[in-house]
Amino acid sequence: MGNFINEEHSAVRVLENLITKAIKNRVSDIHLEPKESAIRVRFRIDGILYHDSILELEIGGQVLSRIKVLAHLDVSEKRIPQDGKFLFSYTNISEIIYNLDLRVSTFPTTLGEKIVIRLLNVEQVNLILENLGFEPEMLDKIKTIVKSCGGFFLVTGPTGSGKTTTLHAMLKAVNCIEKNVCTLEDPVEYHINEITQGQVYPDIGFGFETGIRALLRQDPDIIMVGEIRDKETAKVAIKSALTGHFVLSTLHTNDAPGALVRLLDMDIEHYLINSALTGILAQRLVRKLCENCKFKRILTHSELSLNNIKSLKYIYEANGCENCSGTGYKGRIGIFQLLLTTDKLKALVCESPSLDKIYLQALVDGMESLMDDAVKKLAQGVTSLREILRVL
C-alpha cells in the first residue's frame, strides 16, 4: 500500500483497480478523502482503517465524479450530502463471478467532497448462526428463542458491531415455506430467498412505525424491524409481539441491561415489556488472530493483575505475515452477552429500577458479561488480549 496515482491513469481504470484490490483484501469500506493537493485513499479491514494510496488531485476528482455517475448522483451538486449505490461484478481466481452491492455516501468538506463506499458482498456472507461466534450453551438458547411462536427480541450494540448480520442469520435459521417472514430495513443489506424484505423511506412518510402497521395486514409470522428509533416504533413492535408474532429488532445501547433501561426511558409500560420481551443480545466484533502466524505465550506480571484473565495459563498473539498482510489478524468474530427475562427480573422492571439493579439481577439470573465471553475466546486462541481491550 502507499501508491501514488497520477493523471496518466484513467479514472475508470483507477476506480476498477481500487475496488478489485479492496475485494481481495477483504475491505468493508473505501474512504476517498480530499486533502489540499491530493485525494487520500484508506481501506477499512476488519474494523480498522489502513492507508492505501494517494490520488493526484486531478485524477482523484475524476474518480469521485465517476463514482457519482455510477451511483446515479448529481455530479454537479457538491454542497449537500448524497447517497446512492451501484453493482460491481468481480471474477475471482477460480473464475467465479460475484456481484457486489456498493453503497456510496458523499459528504461536503472544506477541502471538497469526501466519498465512502461500503462493499456488501451478499453472496459471500455466511449467514449461519453457528459461524458467528456463539458459545455452545448460548447458541442453544438463541435457537430456542428463534423457534418461539411469539415475543420481542432485541440485538444491541454500537454501529458496526454486526447486529444486522446476527438478525439475518436468525431469520435464515427460521426461514421455511410454512412461515411468512417479513422485514423492514434501512437499507436492505442482505437478500434472503423466500423472505419478504422491505425498505423504509422516512422522507415520504414510510418509516418503521408505518411499515410495521402495514406488515401486520400481510399475515406475517415473523417481523424483523431494522431499528427501534423512537417510542412509537417501540410500542407498535411490542404490541405486534403480543398478538402472536415473533418480532426482532435492534437498539443502540452498550449492553443488554442498557437496552432494557432504554425501553423504560421511552415510557414503554412495564406490563408491555414484561409480557412481550423474551431476551436481549448485546454484541461486539473482535478481530481473529491469523492462524498462520499466531503463537501462545505466558502472561506477563502486569497481565496477571487483571481480574478477568489471571486464571489463564497463557494467551495468544500473532507476529503478522503475508497471509494477514502483516496485521496479525484475519477476519472477525462476535462476542456476546445474552439477557433472558425471568420472573425476578420482571418484578424488578415494575419498580422502574436503575441500570445497576437490572445488571446485578441479570447476573444473578445467569447472564454473563461481554468480557466473560471475550475471555473465553482469548483462552481458545481466537483473539488477543490487546484486541479485547481495544474493543471493550
Folded structure, characterized:
The protein is α/β, with parallel strands linked by helices and 392 residues long. Helices cover 32% and strands 31% of the residues. The protein is built from 13 helices and 16 strands. The chain has helices at 11-24, 57-70, 136-146, 163-174, 208-215, 231-242, 256-265, 270-276, 301-304, 343-349, 355-364, 370-379, 385-391, and strands at 3-5, 27-34, 38-45, 48-56, 82-91, 97-109, 112-120, 151-156, 181-185, 196-199, 222-225, 246-251, 277-289, 294-298, 314-318, 329-340. The longest helix is centred in the first third of the chain and has 14 residues, at 11-24. It is globular, with a radius of gyration of 23 Å. It starts with a strand and ends with a helix.
Which consecutive residue ranges, at least 5 long each, have pLDDT under 50?
none
- Strand order within the widest beta sheet: 1-4-3-2-7-6-5
Q: What is the CA-based Rg, rounded?
A: 23 Å
Please state the structural category.
alpha/beta
Question: How many strands appear in the DSSP assignment?
Answer: 16
Cα-to-Cα separation, first versus last residue: 29 Å
> What is the number of helices?
13
Main beta sheet strand tally, sense and closure: 7 strands, mixed
Order of helices and strands: EHEEEHEEEHEHEEHEHEHHEEHEEHHHH
Helix content estimate: 25-40%
How does the overall form come out from the CA principal axes? globular
- If you average the pLDDT, what whole number results? 92
Q: In what range is the share of β-strand residues?
A: 25-35%
